[in-house]
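Supplementary Methods. Inverse-folding protocol.

Structures were first reduced to a discrete structure-token string of length 388. This string, shown here, constituted the complete conditioning input.
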């Protein structure tokens, strides 16, 4: 290979890296406004999340939040959209910001919360898709603004940036942004989707609809729900095939599953092997379990993966709750079964996520595990609490 060719091949990635950074910065700079008087009024100010320690905001996040308060109090925005990471029980950026805003006497009806703004791209995508934000002012530091504005405008949000630079920050942020801008350019040009979507919560509507998540203080229940919710992020194909599996603690291939596997896998992460527990009870009480499959003995490969068997088991060893149409009666960690029609049964787990006061369900009805508002979509045939 000729020397010039080697140099060209070596330099090409560097040139592309530099050019993308220049492009993103130059694209966005025209929309960064330093004087609050010059900022046009928009639907909302978006506070982008950053590190918290308990309820204490880091300096970067505190400055972003105070910046947003300035915009709100100067009548530049109608609403405040908090977008950050609330993916774990003990780490919650968004409610820490919400608490700070409420302490500053910001009206609760003007505070919207996006619990799944895990990064800047997800925050902007969900702002436009879930919250239907058409115009916004982004509250973050200048090192971050070019990327945030670039993403927002490419996703059709009429976005402006108001720098939240109220003190010096680490130079590491500038270095990180060099690579983050490349990631943003790739996400935009390849049409990436955020980690979670969900039902619409218009920024012009009721803010309380976005507050609907309950913090679980029970470690067992929290771990159970965290496992169920994690399954919704995994690539699992619906596959009702019969599999030969180990006993105890046997499982079918991790990339396959049906509705019962959502429950089995969630409980297994908290130390409960439903395969073994169902089998042991069926050995001693076989006559109490459905005989619809024409079996004369137990089968450790499939018994625990059948909804009717789990209904009997949960009814015997858990608490069987009266079926009702009141969503308040369905608590996080509850197990629900349904009749889908034509003899098809289904099962799912109630979560601590809500939509219009109805708890969302993690279930696999054919497209892999999903978090959906479907509690009352079908006839409920069973409602149970087991060890929660």
């Amino acid at each position: 290979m000729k020397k010039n060719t080697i140099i060209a091949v070596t330099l090409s990635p560097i040139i592309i890296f530099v050019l993308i950074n220049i492009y993103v910065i130059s694209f966005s700079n025209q929309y960064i406004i330093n004087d609050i008087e010059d900022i046009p009024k928009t639907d909302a100010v978006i506070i982008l999340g950053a590190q918290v320690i308990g309820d204490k905001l880091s300096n970067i996040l505190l400055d972003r939040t105070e910046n947003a308060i300035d915009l709100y109090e100067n009548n530049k925005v109608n609403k405040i959209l908090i977008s950050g990471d609330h993916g774990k029980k003990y780490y919650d950026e968004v409610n820490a910001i919400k608490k700070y805003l409420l302490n500053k006497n910001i009206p609760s009806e003007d505070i919207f919360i996006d619990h799944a703004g895990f990064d800047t791209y997800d925050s902007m995508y969900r702002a436009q898709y879930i919250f239907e934000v058409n115009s916004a002012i982004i509250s973050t530091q200048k090192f971050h603004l070019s990327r945030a504005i670039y993403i927002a405008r490419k996703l059709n949000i009429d976005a402006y940036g108001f720098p939240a630079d109220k003190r010096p920050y680490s130079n590491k942020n500038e270095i990180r942004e060099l690579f983050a801008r490349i990631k943003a350019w790739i996400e935009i040009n390849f049409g990436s989707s955020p980690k979670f979507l969900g039902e619409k919560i218009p920024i012009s509507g009721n803010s309380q609809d976005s507050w609907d998540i309950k913090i679980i203080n029970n470690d067992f229940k929290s771990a159970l729900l965290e496992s169920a919710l994690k399954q919704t992020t995994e690539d699992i194909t619906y596959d009702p095939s019969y599999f030969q599996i180990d006993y105890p603690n046997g499982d079918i291939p991790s990339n396959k599953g049906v509705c019962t596997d959502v429950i089995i896998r969630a409980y297994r992460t908290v130390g409960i092997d439903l395969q073994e527990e169902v089998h042991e009870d069926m050995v001693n009480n076989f006559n109490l379990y459905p005989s619809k499959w024409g079996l004369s003995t137990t089968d450790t490969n499939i018994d625990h993966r059948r909804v009717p068997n789990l209904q009997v088991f949960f009814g015997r060893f858990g608490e069987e709750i009266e079926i009702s149409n009141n969503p308040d009666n369905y608590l996080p960690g509850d197990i629900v079964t349904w009749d889908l029609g034509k003899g098809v049964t289904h099962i799912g787990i109630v979560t601590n996520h809500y939509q219009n006061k109805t708890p969302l369900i993690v279930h696999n009805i054919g497209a892999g595990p999903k978090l959906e508002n479907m509690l009352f979509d079908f006839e409920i045939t069973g409602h149970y609490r087991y060890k929660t």
